[in-house]
């Protein structure tokens, strides 16, 4: 997927216009949100640092001669008989050094994101989408017909969350076409066009199940929200 640094004013207009057009055909209300990331994953460096630390400890336990030779190289090859206390202290210092080094390296944001398991990223994106939906769309429309289309750029993931009236009539897998059309544009580096394509697809589904009535007001903002 092409990297998209930011969403320009023209893309904001494309999405806003797509929402306005879609809502002309339905009582449904579409909220669009693009976020740079859904989480900072600050625990990832800790997990990797602990894993490397325990791997080093396992290597010392399985290959004690290797560790003894390593200690000998630090003293220029001179043999030294370490007391148990000295030996354990050296092991702890080695483990602490490995922990600190790995934590520092994995703390670099691009690497931290790359080393976070996909399942965790999926869960965080979904959780952020649901939280944003609760704040921006859930139970904020007269007919409980709000929909959130959420795109998280860093994780390259999107979510569609619908209010209860929509969920009762529309199976979640129906949104697959909207996701697919969004991904096509995102891979070309056009986040705004991707969001607009998803809006049009969602609008068609809403128009089928919740056609526009004469007295339905515009209850939620049409503009793209960028976080």
UniProtKB/TrEMBL annotation:
<keyword id="KW-0812">Transmembrane</keyword>
<protein>
    <submittedName>
        <fullName>Putative membrane protein</fullName>
    </submittedName>
</protein>
<feature type="transmembrane region" description="Helical">
    <location>
        <begin position="46"/>
        <end position="67"/>
    </location>
</feature>
<keyword id="KW-1133">Transmembrane helix</keyword>
<feature type="transmembrane region" description="Helical">
    <location>
        <begin position="87"/>
        <end position="106"/>
    </location>
</feature>
<feature type="domain" description="TPM">
    <location>
        <begin position="125"/>
        <end position="204"/>
    </location>
</feature>
<dbReference type="InterPro" id="IPR007621">
    <property type="entry name" value="TPM_dom"/>
</dbReference>
<dbReference type="Pfam" id="PF04536">
    <property type="entry name" value="TPM_phosphatase"/>
</dbReference>
<keyword id="KW-0472">Membrane</keyword>
């Amino acid at each position: 997927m092409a990297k998209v640094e930011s969403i320009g004013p023209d893309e904001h207009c494309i999405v806003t216009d797509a929402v306005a057009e879609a809502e002309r055909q339905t009582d449904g209300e579409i909220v669009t949100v693009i976020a740079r990331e859904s989480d900072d994953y600050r625990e990832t460096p800790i997990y990797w640092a602990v894993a490397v630390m325990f791997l080093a400890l396992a290597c010392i336990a399985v290959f004690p001669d290797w560790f003894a030779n390593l200690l000998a190289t630090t003293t220029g090859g001179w043999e030294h008989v370490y007391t148990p206390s000295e030996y354990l202290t050296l092991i702890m210092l080695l483990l602490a050094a490995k922990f600190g080094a790995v934590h520092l390296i994995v703390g670099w944001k691009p690497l931290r994101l790359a080393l976070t398991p996909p399942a965790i990223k999926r869960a965080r994106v979904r959780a952020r989408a649901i939280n944003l939906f609760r704040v921006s769309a859930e139970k904020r429309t007269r007919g409980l017909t709000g929909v959130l289309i959420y795109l998280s750029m860093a994780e390259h993931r999107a979510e569609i969350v619908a209010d209860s009236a929509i969920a009762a009539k529309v199976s979640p897998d129906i949104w697959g076409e909207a996701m697919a059309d969004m991904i096509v544009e995102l891979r070309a580096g056009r986040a705004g066009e991707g969001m607009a394509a998803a809006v049009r697809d969602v609008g068609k589904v809403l128009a089928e199940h919740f056609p526009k009535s004469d007295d339905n007001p515009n209850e939620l903002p049409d503009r793209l929200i960028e976080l």
